[in-house]
Amino acid sequence: MPKLSSRCLLTVLTVIALIFSAFFMFYNIKGAWGYALSLRGQRLLSLVVVAYAIAVSTVLFQTITHNRILTPAIMGFDRLYQLIQTVIVFAAGTFHLGWFNDTSGFFIETALLTVFAVNLFQWLFSGTGRSLHLVLLTGIVFGVLFGSLNSLLNRMMDPNDSVILTDKYFANFNNYNGNVLIAAIVIIAVVSVFGWRLRHNFDVLALGRDMAINLGIDYRRSVRQILFLVTVLVSVSTALVGPVTFFGLLVANLAYLLCRSIQHRIILPVAVLLAVIFLVGGQFMLEYVFRFNVPLSIIIEFVGGIVFILLLLKGKMR
After folding, report:
1. Which of helix, strand or coil describes residue 261?
2. Residue 266 is assigned to a structural domain of this protein
3. What is the pLDDT of residue 207?
4. What is d(CA 68, CA 139) in angstroms, rounded to the nearest whole number?
5. Does position 2 have pLDDT exceeding 80, yes or no?
6. Does the residue 15 lie in any domain?
7. 96: containing domain
8. What sections of the chain are H helices per DSSP?
9. pLDDT over 90 (residue 22)
């Protein structure tokens, strides 16, 4: 199948994203238009923010790891998010789960996830013999540790609390908090400006460590800066809607497949547009066309899991 030019591809994806956004905003509105548009506008904005954060963080994480089947979830963010929720319920009961929907809960949760990752990266990169591979392995170990602690606390708490808590372990794109949406946008905008200043390093880092160093890039410093950028984006999206494992993998690899170019000035916007199409279009189809009560995150994770298996099989066949 012939590939579209980069400009044509971006135009087509932008038009599709706008069409789904328009349907999401205006389809089948009954009653007070002002209230309906305000509510749907906030939901649309939250979906776009989450789509942007997940797509950009995954593409940049794969750039510095040089591996297209890895996502930031390997660093244990989702496990830490679940552990935070479990500790609160274990200590104070399910009544306090609503605390996470408050603004203070969002900021504390984002801060905990960010502090954990930044301290981990700072410690691991402080030694001369430590590398990115050690960071990834340590992230896997911490993920297993957090998962084990989470399972232990779940077995010790009231079974009814454990059942209620299980719903918090999965992403819910309907359960966003409008009070923290502006704060999330501001945080993402600030780190995006920071990332924009690093944009010239992305393509060089994708060539590999040795090539990047030979081309004059301060490799360790650049990798740490991008990891910080990825950490903040993942922390904000996780605190906003919950942990998402395979969605970034799905949109990033589809962007690689569709693009003629491997340049990040093309890959990043294509991945973001695909993420917006999947989230906004998927939510519209489920909610207004098919009228299913199935959470979109379950379908996305199912499809993303299949893509992950196909990528593993493709790599093994090579």
Report:
1. coil
2. no
3. 86
4. 17
5. no
6. no
7. 43-168+176-240
8. 6-26, 33-65, 77-92, 103-124, 132-156, 159-166, 178-197, 199-205, 209-214, 219-241, 247-258, 264-276, 282-284, 296-317
9. yes
Characterize 220-248 residue by residue with b for buried, 16 or more Cβ atoms within 10 angstroms of its Cβ, and e for exposed: eebbbbbbbbbbbbbbbbbbbbbbbbbbb
Question: Would you put residue 71 in left (φ > 0), alpha (ψ -120 to 50) or beta?
Answer: beta
CATH of the domain at 194: 1.10.3470.10
Could you read off the pLDDT of 144-158 as tens digits, one per residue?
888 888 888 878 877
CB atoms within 10 A of CB 105: 19
Angle, CA of 255, 259 and 263, to the nearest 5°: 95
One-letter identity of residue 125: F
Each residue's pLDDT tens digit, 230-262: 888 888 888 788 777 788 888 998 999 888 777
CA pair distance 132, 297, nearest whole angstrom: 30
Res 177 pLDDT > 70: no
Q: How many domains, the chain? A: 1
Cα 208 to Cα 125, 216, 260, 266, 267: the distances in Å are 18, 13, 20, 19, 18
Residues in contact with 293: Cβ distance below 8 Å, sequence separation at least 6, in sequence order: none
DSSP 127: S
Confidence of residue 94 (pLDDT cuts 50, 70, 90): low
Structure tokens at 129: 């013999």
Q: How far apart are CA 261 and CA 298, in angstroms?
A: 31
The structure tokens 């309906």 sit at: 36
Phi, psi (rounded to 5 degrees) for 137: -65, -40
C-alpha 217/C-alpha 239 separation (Å) is 33
